[in-house]
Amino acid sequence: MNALETKSLTLAYGDQPVIENLDHCFPKGKISVLIGSNGSGKSTLLRSLARLLKPRKGSVILDGKAITTLSTKAVARKLAILPQSPECPEGLTVLQLVKQGRYPYQNWMRQWSEEDERAVKRALKITNLEGFEERTVDSLSGGQRQRVWIAMVLAQETDTILLDEPTTYLDLSHQLDILDLLYELNRSEGRTIIMVLHDLNLSARYADNMVVVHDKTVYAHGKPESIITPELVKRVFGIECLVMKDPVYGKPLCIPCGKGRRAEDENLRAVDTQ
């Protein structure tokens, strides 16, 4: 079963196509990670999956229906998106922002309810933000702010969550915190996670399904161990690399071959022998 599908999808900015005639399926209940070089169209594709970008041609299918035929609230009750580097109004508290996740369920006949309250409290608990409710979002660290945005997304209680580079500008510790949180949500609750990541090694560690966006289409997709090869990295990213098995996680580990010092450098060998 698939969470989202694209059929003959073409996306463009002006006269410049970014994605052309794409037929692709994103499996339900799995973590799919979009990777590709800068400007490859991975973030553009993610935006179209969330109905934030209208296709030039073709369609995105959600629950058997073209997503463009569904109302905004209907879509928001089925999937949530966290864009890259979202901005929060100055002075807004953590609780106020997380409550925004319940917008899809509000109308003039249905105001704030016990169900909304439960969803917000649960989202704060999952993201370890209990006790932060009255803090302003702009007073928090980068990692804490990202957790608040994820809590807002969780409060929507959707089966599918889309995230565009959720670890951008975070140090390695906070990157792992965010990715571990998303991994646990997937494993414990079966949430479908579709996200864009830049780091190949973190992508390989957390993805069930890697989707390589290149040359205006999905160039390759599947399990990390079948996707990450020196040949693919050379073709898609233009760099030479070594690929080995991660000794801890068993996933592919990519070692790029840049122009920095190598082990055979005479100075480094001299140090090693001392």
TrEMBL record:
SUPFAM superfamilies: P-loop containing nucleoside triphosphate hydrolases. InterPro entries: AAA+_ATPase (IPR003593), ABC_transporter-like_ATP-bd (IPR003439), ABC_transporter-like_CS (IPR017871), P-loop_NTPase (IPR027417), Siderophore_ABC-ATPase (IPR051535). One of its GO terms (cellular component) is plasma membrane. It is a peripheral membrane protein. It is found in: Cell membrane. Keywords: ATP-binding, Cell membrane, Ion transport, Iron, Iron transport, Membrane, Nucleotide-binding, Transport. This is Iron complex transport system ATP-binding protein. GO terms for biological process: iron ion transport. One of its GO terms (molecular function) is ATP binding. Residues 4-240 form the ABC transporter domain. PROSITE patterns: ABC_TRANSPORTER_1 (PS00211), ABC_TRANSPORTER_2 (PS50893).
